[in-house]
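Consider the tokenized backbone below.
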């Protein structure tokens, strides 16, 4: 069964940091552009970041630019999302998925292009 497994979420105070992991199961993440998304209660799923097959191709939502960094570890078949300077607006369930239509990250990320979703990992930023 092809899917990803997200981990690394938790409860953190405002200003804190977390590193999320997205591990591939049944497929090689390096073969795809990988995106991170988040969904807060009552809101639509939104794109947070993306890394292409080449790590020179990346995308960050305006709301996370300068605070989040996406990276790959090919040996571990894992994509990471380092999140710094977290604020309560970052509270959401975070998901990763593979882009089945592109190998790079364009200026706009479309959720419908992604598949192999995991169950997500909860990030809560609160004092």
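A designed sequence for it:
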């Amino acid at each position: 069964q092809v899917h990803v497994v997200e981990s690394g979420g938790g409860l953190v105070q405002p200003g804190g940091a977390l590193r999320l992991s997205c591990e591939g199961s049944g497929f090689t993440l390096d073969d795809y552009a990988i995106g991170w998304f988040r969904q807060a209660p009552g809101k639509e799923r939104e794109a947070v970041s993306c890394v292409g097959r080449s790590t020179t191709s990346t995308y960050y939502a305006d709301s996370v630019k300068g605070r989040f960094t996406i990276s790959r570890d090919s040996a571990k078949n894992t994509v990471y999302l380092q999140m710094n300077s977290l604020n309560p607006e970052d509270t959401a369930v975070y998901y990763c998925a593979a882009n089945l239509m592109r190998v790079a990250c364009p200026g706009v990320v479309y959720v419908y292009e992604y598949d192999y979703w995991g169950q997500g990992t909860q990030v809560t930023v609160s004092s």
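The mean pLDDT is 95.
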